[in-house]
Structure formats: structure tokens, C-alpha cells
Amino acid sequence: MKTEILASELNFKAVRSSGAGGQNVNKVSSKIVLIFDVATSLGLDEEEKRTLQTKLKSKISQENLLILTCDEDRSQLKNKRIIIKRFFEMLDKALEKPKKRIATKTTKGANEKRIQEKKKAGEIKAGRRKLDF
């Protein structure tokens, strides 16, 4: 993943934000929409593209566009910074490879403790039975 190339491939669109905010909401386009074309990206190799398309398929449209929005702040510039940061965090998380699990054996002490507990439980249950004369 080449972050410099990816940053140059990002497309932004400013839209009027919804919700409370008085007259400012009606005048200023502070909401930012980030659009990223996964299929034609030069900053990702083919394996990374396939991984993103499977892991982020709920966020990717039919045209292979990853669309993110941000309207947290009243400032367009702050929203742009937030959405860029969120975009790269999302890519890092999606492309992160999980650690391979190493199988381990139970320890000798743990096995002995388990057997002792089973014996103790068996003795308690045996004590509940009626005596047969």
C-alpha cells in the first residue's frame, strides 16, 4: 500500500450538512464525501484490492467506489482531515493480516488439577446416594 499515491487518488465533494445548526446549515457546504475507486487504484496491488473488496464489501458500491462521509464538525477543512484519517485507518485495519495461532498442549499441572477436581466432584455426588444395606 503506497499512501502517497492513495492520497492523490482521493476525490472529495462538499455537500450541505443536515441536522441542527441554524442558518449556517443552509448556507455552508461543510459535509465532506470521500470517493475512492478501489478497482483502478495504482497505490494498491491486486491482492490488496481483492482483500478490500471482500472485507469492505458493505461499504463499496457496485461501481467499486468506496464512499465515506463526515459531517462531525462545522468546518469543511476539519471534516476533510477527519475523513482522510478515517479512510487510512479503515484501509490499515482491513489489510492487517491476523496472527497465525500456535497450538499448545495443556500443562501437566493443569491436567492433574482437573483430575483432582473431577475426583472431588465424584466423591460429593457419591455422598448424596442412598445407602444400600
From TrEMBL:
Keyword entries, A-Z: Hydrolase
Stored InterPro entries: Pep_chain_release_fac_I
Positions with biased composition (Basic and acidic residues): 110-133
MF term (GO), any: peptidyl-tRNA hydrolase activity
Disordered: annotated span: 100-133
Ranges where the Prokaryotic-type class I peptide chain release factors domain occurs: 16-32
E.C. number(s) listed in UniProt: 3.1.1.29
UniProt name for this protein: Aminoacyl-tRNA hydrolase
Organism of provenance: Flavobacterium difficile
Gene of this entry: arfB
